[in-house]
Design goal:
With 276 residues, this protein is an alpha+beta fold. It contains seven helices and ten strands. The protein has a four-stranded antiparallel sheet with strand order 1-6-7-5. Strands 2-3-4-8 form a four-stranded antiparallel sheet, covered by helices on one side. It has a two-stranded antiparallel ribbon with strand order 9-10. The chain binds a DNA duplex (16 and 16 nucleotides) through helix 6.
DNA sequence: CTACCATCCTGGTTGC
DNA sequence: TGCAACCAGGATGGTA
């Protein structure tokens, strides 16, 4: 479930094993992802040193020596796994396999092939089409109520849809959009332009708190951010409303049940009693 | 500018 | 048990 917190947890899992290491061997397997690999990706990665690993929205940025950066996205179903000297062969959905000079193996796995892994000039990274139009990082100081209000001003779209729009704020996906609005007490159907003042404050606070909690949960449930099976950053969390249609609204005395509606072809969950 | 829909893929779940 | 329909964490592009 790669939204921002999951990607952040993956990045934190990759860092201690990869930063400072050289990629001794890189193999691309299936190349027909929705967005194809950069030409000769494997050859261009081989022998490079990993300088840093960062995240922007739901993108993973693996900065290499030689002024190039691996830009990766997990799509709907992408995974990263990290194991030491594995003896099992890559599976059918392992599209990239990287082996470090000290024997760790990273596999980029994506059943649905909606993810991507390309190589971009580090100098042009911010201007790259995939990153250029992204809104602010929700956990940064730069993202506050004033910035948020400006971003949604005049927009006659439901606030849930506005939160999914990566230009409004970057990294929120379908689960955390519902969860943030629940925390804020704002109906997902409310028009964005009607979310000013206190509501904007609460939505911003709801976004930050739910993302921080999810990151903390990811970190706390994983040892060194790598599970025994090599899986990075996927943790179980009980959502307050997501996927809980018909259940009681948690932690409050409202008599209503959580409702599921469809907005922009995506499921939205909310408590009609608590969210106005 | 907006809503709405289809599309890219595969696999797990649900319902008949 | 078999099989088809439906659903899924993302993002884009077309149409009205």
């Amino acid at each position: 479930m790669p939204e921002l917190p999951e990607v952040e947890t993956v990045v934190r899992g990759l860092r201690p094993r990869l930063v400072g290491r050289r990629l001794a061997r890189v193999e691309t397997r299936r190349r027909d992802l929705r967005i194809p690999f950069s030409p000769r990706l494997a050859e261009r990665l081989t022998g490079r040193r990993v300088e840093a690993i960062d995240r922007r929205a739901k993108y993973i940025l693996m900065r290499l020596d030689g002024s190039e950066t691996v830009l990766a996205h997990l799509g709907m179903a992408g995974r990263m796994t990290l194991r030491q000297r594995p003896n099992d062969p890559p599976g059918p959905h392992d599209h990239v396999v990287m082996t470090t000079d000290d024997g760790w193996e990273l596999r980029f796995n994506d059943v649905r092939r909606f993810g991507l892994m390309i190589l971009v000039s580090s100098a042009e990274l911010e201007r790259h089409a995939l990153l250029a139009d992204l809104g602010p990082e929700p956990l940064s100081k730069a993202f506050d109520a004033a910035v948020f209000e400006a971003a949604i001003a005049g927009r006659r779209t439901p606030i849930k849809a506005a939160l999914l729009d990566q230009k409004t704020v970057a990294g929120i996906g379908n689960i955390y959009a519902s969860e943030a609005l629940f925390r804020a007490g704002v109906s997902p159907k409310r028009l964005a332009l009607r979310c000013r003042g206190e509501r904007a404050d609460k939505i911003v606070a709801g976004i930050k708190s739910v993302l921080n909690d999810a990151i903390a949960a990811g970190g706390s449930t994983l040892r060194d951010y790598v599970q025994a099976d090599g899986e990075l950053g996927y943790f179980q969390q009980r959502w307050a409303v997501y996927d809980r249609e018909g259940q009681k609204c948690p932690g409050c005395r409202c008599k209503g049940a959580i409702r599921r509606i469809v907005q922009s072809n995506r499921a939205t969950y909310y408590c009609p009693d608590r969210q106005k």
